[in-house]
Amino acid sequence: YHISHFSVSKKVISKDGTRKWLFKLEDGKELETVYIPDNNRGTICVSSQVGCTLSCSFCHTGTMKFKRNLNVAEILGQVMYVKNELQDWNQKGNKKKITNLVFMGMGEPFFNYDNVIKAINILTNMKGLAFSKRKITLSTSGVVPKILDFKEDSDVNLAVSLHAAFDEVRDILVPLNKKWPIQILLKALKDY
C-alpha cells in the first residue's frame, strides 16, 4: 500500500461554509476537492482524475487536458484530509460533519474504474472508513459499458449527468453522447 501525501496549493471558504481545496499531489499535479455543508449533512465532492478527457461544455475540468488517473491513496486522501481538517472522527456526542460522498469532482470516475471501486470498498468497509453505501454516489456522464460492470461490482448510488433529453442537444453538452446516445444509455440504465 501507499499513503499519499499532498499539500494545499489553495483553499477557499465561501459565506455558506462550502470549502474548496486545490491539492498538490506528490508529482506536482493538482486536483480539486470540495466540502459542502447543508443543514443536517455535509458532502465531500471527490475527484477521480487530474483533468478529464470528456470536454463537456458546462464543466471547467473539461477545459483542462487529462493528466492521469488518481491512485487509490489519492482518492482516499481527499476524504482523509477533509475529515482531519473538520475534525470529524466519531467524537462522542458530536454530530457528524461529513455524512455523504459524491464522485462528481474532476474526471469521469468510470474511466478510472478499478481505483474508484477499490476506494469505494475501503470507504464502505467497517475496518475502513465505514461510510454507509446509501451515502455514497458515483456520477457518470454515461459510460455505458461500465454501468453494467458497476451493477456487479458495487451497490453504492449511481447518478447520470444527463443534461439534455435529446441527442442533438446532449451531443453538444456531453460529447460522449455521440458514442453512447440517450436510447443506448437509457437501455443500460433499465438493465442496471
Radius of gyration: 17 Å
Structural class: alpha/beta
Distance between termini?
32 Å
The average pLDDT value, as a whole number, equals: 91
The percentage helix is 25-40%
Order of helices and strands: EEEEEEHEHEHEHH
- What's the helix count? 5
Please state the overall shape, judged from the principal axes of the Cα atoms.
Answer: globular
Protein described:
The chain has 192 residues and is an alpha/beta fold. 28% of the residues lie in helices and 23% in strands. The protein is built from 5 helices and 9 strands. It has helices at residues 72-86, 113-124, 144-153, 167-173, 182-191; strands at 7-13, 19-24, 30-38, 41-45, 49-50, 68-69, 100-103, 136-140, 157-160. A hairpin with a 2-residue loop joins strand 3 (30-38) and strand 4 (41-45). Helix 1 crosses helix 2 and helix 3 runs parallel beside helix 5 (182-191). The longest helix has 15 residues, at 72-86. 31% of the residues are buried. The mean pLDDT is 91.
Quick summary of this structure?
This protein has 192 residues and is an alpha/beta fold.
Q: Which key features would you list for this structure?
A:
two-stranded antiparallel ribbon, alpha/beta, 192 residues, 5 helices
Secondary-structure topology with pairs:
Elements: E1 7-13, E2 19-24, E3 30-38, E4 41-45, E5 49-50, E6 68-69, H1 72-86, E7 100-103, H2 113-124, E8 136-140, H3 144-153, E9 157-160, H4 167-173, H5 182-191
Parallel strand pairs: 4-7, 7-8, 8-9
Antiparallel strand pairs: 1-2, 2-3, 3-4, 5-6
Helix pairs in contact: 1-2, 3-5
